[in-house]
Amino acid sequence: MKSSQSSFLKRTFSGLVARPLKVPYIAALRPRQWTKNFVVFAAPLFGFSINLQSLFGGLLAFLLFCCASSSFYLINDIADVESDRQHPVKCKRPIAAGLVSIPVASGMALVLLGGSVAVAWLRSPALGAAIIAYAVLQVAYNLRLKRMVILDIGAIATGFVLRAYAGAAATDIVLSPWFVLCTAMLALFLAIEKRKAELRLAQSKGAKPRAVLKRYSLPLLSRMENVVTTGTVVCYALWSSGPVVRGASTSWMLLTLPYVLYGIFRYQLLSDPQQIASYTDSEVEQGGRSERPEEILLKDLPILFTVIGWVISCFTILWLRHQQLIQ
Q1: What is the tens place of the pLDDT at every residue in 240-271?
Q2: How many other CB atoms sit within 10 Å of the CB of residue 273?
Q3: Residue 271 is inside which H or E element, if any?
Q4: CA 72, CA 92: separation in Å to the nearest integer?
Q5: pTM value?
Q6: Are 148 and 120 in contact (CB under 8 A)?
């Protein structure tokens, strides 16, 4: 009974997510990647600045990062259109499939990037600087960094830190250094897990890995994972220990640590060799599960419910602290 209910929920949720992607112009923007931009809401949530002004600022930062990131997805698809047409999966992307013309895609990218920078700067020079820094990072990543071992992972983590700072800039909130470090460590963890899954899938299927993957090995990635996982848990524990270490506003936030631990362990499970061996052909063609952190949040119910539980717990604790019901 529970299994059938779980399958029904997965089918329903996946259907709601996939339906808008049938429109080529929307699909070209890769809206599934937008889940990464929810990091911008960290500042108003953990600063417990719950008012219309902060809500508007956080929502604006989220939309601006969605526009900026989508502009670079369009640019990348335009640059790689010929190679994508030869790829068994990427050939289905709207630009490669000819569903969206290159001139139209170029215009969309220009409007999205230029508009996001202009609106961000008008809102706040700090927010504008964060969007510009993200744009520069994306240019550097696509031109060079994505082909440089270790630096490719660092660039991914930097993008998440910029999102967190953008949310803080849009809502005039100062983030704890521990929380910024935790964000960076968690982003590094996700990037390392992505590389591990890519490498394992390539090895298990006898496929030729991308150039940068040839510089990595599973033992190296496992050692990096151990360091980053430890750093993530330590930074989060220090932040949630309260104001005594310039962290959260209350040490009751330590109660949310189990959510973080479970989320990390669950994500590691999805990149486990035995788990990868059970992937369907469709999942392998799409790159596995743990290669796509933005889709895991939408499709893996245990992680989705963990994130929801973590947010509710954080909000409840911070609300109680705001009402001075706890210290």
Answers
A1: 998 888 888 899 999 999 999 999 999 888 87
A2: 11
A3: none
A4: 18
A5: 0.81
A6: no
